[in-house]
């Protein structure tokens, strides 16, 4: 059975196959996210493709699609990430090292909170605390 993110809606279920991100340069943005996540580009990907899929260990995948218009406002949907094997703050520094830009810092003195970054095309995403960090404060 394929592992899908499943949502229950009024007694029905839908599976989420992919989260799609509109962008100007799908191949380049997918390469950046591949470095950020460690997930590979789909094996049939070519540099000039209009759509590029990043293959996660299980669905949902990330799909980058070329659109003619640029980003004009805040994302209506964004990705919340949590590091595996490091802390939130270490992950923020790693992603900034890959080219992400700081956007909003929502970290609190007690160690809770998150950081909103911008990817290389200006799309917002959040870096939350790792599971270990969440477990330590629960």
What percentage of the residues does DSSP assign to strands (E)? 25-35%
Topology, number of strands: 9
Radius of gyration: 16 Å
Helix-strand topology string = EEEHEEEHEEEH
Name of the CATH architecture of the largest domain: Sandwich
- Distance between the ends: 33 Å
Please tell me the total number of domains: 2
Spans where pLDDT lies below 50 across 5 or more residues:
none
Helical run tally: 3
Principal-axes shape call: globular
Q: What does the main sheet amount to?
A: 4 strands, mixed
Q: Class of the largest domain in CATH?
A: Mainly Beta
Q: Roughly how much helix do the residues carry, as a percent range? A: 10-25%
Mean pLDDT across all residues, rounded?
91
Which structural category fits the helices and strands? alpha/beta
User: CATH fold name of the largest domain, please?
Assistant: Immunoglobulin-like
